[in-house]
Amino acid sequence: MLKQQEKVLEVSNLQTHFFTDEGVSRAVDGIDFTLHKGETLGLVGESGCGKSITSLSILRLIASPPGRIVNGEILFKGQDLLKKTDKEMGAIRGNEISMIFQEPMTSLNPVYSVGEQIAEVFRHHQKLGRKEAWEKAVDMLRLVGIPSPEKRAKQEPYELSGGMRQRVMIAMAMACSPEILIADEPTTALDVTIQAQILDLMKLLQKQMGMSIIMITHDLGVVSETCDRVAVMYAGKIVEYTAAGELFANPKHPYTVGLLNSLPRADQDQEELQAIQGSVPSPYNMPAGCRFAPRCPQARELCHTTVPELTDVGNGTQVRCWMYTPEWNVQLDAHMKAGGSIQ
User: Fold this and answer.
1) What are the residue ranges spanned by the domains of the chain?
2) What pLDDT, on a 0 to 100 scale, did the predictor assign at position 221?
3) Ranges for the ABC transporter domain (predicted)?
4) CA-CA distance, 125 to 122, in Å (whole number)?
5) Other beta carbons less than 10 A from residue 132's beta carbon
6) Helices 130-143 and 114-126, axial angle in degrees (round to 10)
7) CB-hemisphere CA count at 13 Å for 319?
8) What's the longest Cα–Cα distance across the chain?
């Protein structure tokens, strides 16, 4: 269990919506989490659940229109980022809070050398001259394990392998020793061996620099390897918030249970994997109650009509599910009296 640590980021009731011709998409709809100094927090869920929009909201990078942060509070070292001016946010991005984006080939500028792109970070945030910024860029490439960094610094992104490009992105993100690193699917496009190398590198740099990491992923294997705590997201809401070990040993929310059951297990003989039935609801037409209710094998009438709150169930775990509330027993008694059966 984590010791009581300094809070570096507190997100409260964050709501980011997109206003389009089809209607209002509530991509992130009232999420809360805390990031402590030196820890890694995993944001987990299917594609489209709101993980990446959460990270872009923290950095105030939501394209407007059509997107807008409509409510909430994002406290970084006690100061609300939503109240910062664009100039103040420009000084924070890439300096105190950095981000590694999903696909380095689309994040790196194809017409500049990778060394020049890293050096730009030093020139912008630390006001260094060209020569000193270039030397620091080469040092960063060396730090992230790229061989012959002086040579590689002069190359453009297309001349590097996928693993090397991701190392360049890490070097760029770490250039100013940020307090928070947001890693959005940092290993998605890489093969398994390179994935392991990148995760090991991130853990090493985290230990050396004492920074906090928000790891955004749909890969539960990455979560088990890297995260201290996990927030499981579904359809714009956090449905389970717990320590990583507790998540794998004792998952609570039916969605989390479904995710874990859909994975192959080395310690079990499985003829076929268990899929979660149904599909994710449209962000323009969310269910009236629990957003997982249409797919949940445990759902009762209450689940379909009323949205549950995050409930503390002990061991530092919070779950957004009616099964862990007193109301559930009342609903269950009524169900049994009506001649229903327990699923």
Assistant:
1) 106-175
2) 87
3) 9-260
4) 5
5) 13
6) 120
7) 20
8) 79
- The answer to whether 213 and 41 have CB atoms below 8 angstroms apart is yes
Quote the tokens at residue 270. 């499985």
The one-letter amino acid code at 335 reads H
DSSP 224: H
pLDDT at 335: 54
d(CA 288, CA 50): 19
Task: Report the half-sphere exposure of 147 (CA within 13 A, side-chain side).
Answer: 2
3-state secondary structure of 255: helix
Q: Of 197, 122, 193, which is closest to residue 167 (Cα–Cα)?
A: 197
- Report the length, in residues, of the chain: 343
Quote the CA–CA distance of 265 and 104 in Å, as a whole number.
Answer: 31
Q: What distances in angstroms separate CA 76 from CA 9, 112, 159, 168, one per listed residue?
A: 5, 32, 38, 26
H or E element that contains 240: strand 237-243
pLDDT of residue 139: 92
Instruction: Specify the pTM.
Output: 0.88
pLDDT at 320 over 50: yes
Sort residue 215 into left (φ over 0), alpha (ψ -120 to 50) or beta: beta
**Type of residue numbered 280:** V
Say if CB 231 and CB 44 are below 8 A apart.
Answer: yes
Measuring CA to CA, how many Å separate 130 from each of 122, 144, 176?
Answer: 9, 21, 16
**With 60 as the cut, is the pLDDT of residue 290 above it?**
yes
